[in-house]
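Possible regression after last week's pipeline update?

I re-ran a chain I had predicted before the update to compare outputs. Posting the input and the new output here so someone can diff against the archived version. Not blocking, just want to make sure nothing changed silently.
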Amino acid sequence: MAVIAIETVGATTEATGKPVIVVVVAGRPVGLGPAEKANAVLMAYQGSTEAGTAVADVVFGKTNPAGKLPISWPSDAPAVGADFAGTAPSPLGDQPKFFDQLPSTASGPGNAYNPQFPFGYGLSYTTFTHTNLAVTPKVARDGTATATFTVTNTGTRAGTDIVPVYVAQPVSPVVVPPQRLVGFARVTLDPGRSQVVHVSFPAATLAESAPDINASGPPAVVPGSYVLQLDKNSTTPYAVDVSAPFVIQ
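New output (post-update):
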């Protein structure tokens, strides 16, 4: 196994045939370049004097990582220019990758939401499943909804699963994101164990401001149909794993 800094990854290192782990020490997402082909990427951020010890514990398996990205990691095209496919990587020179961060607000390459790693993504040395999702079927506009689901550790190591909980609104009088984060759960489980999780959120979390151009109107919860969603832990944005509909009255 080879552990290298992001600046030094290249064909020579890959030619060794050993797994390559790239450790990124930065305060924000950066273009990975050749590091995109590494066997693993560890985001270490900007740690303190014990950051090296913490990174070593993760790389050598002493600690099972559980972090999920609190940001979207933009895609990075290998060369300047591309066609006008919205799902193309964001082109070089688009700093700080506005096309990826502001989906469908432009017509150039990368204007869709096609990050390298989406918000909430992150791997560990074990795997988890989410089943039996249910949500309060009818909620008042000033009420609270509760999502219930089961988290199971399906791997061979103890680990912690951080589960973002989203809500989609199929029909809205103003433009809203495909998903909105309303809460999350953090669950630590031994291999083969399961836990029932409850996540509550006020309906006011889904309030919208009209008109959507300048958001000058007072926020208000729109009555209608909504969908609670748990996404797959994958690099595909908005890849829904399980969902449950509910109504705000």
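Follow-up from reviewer: compared with the archived run. The chain has a mean pLDDT of 85. Marking as no regression found.
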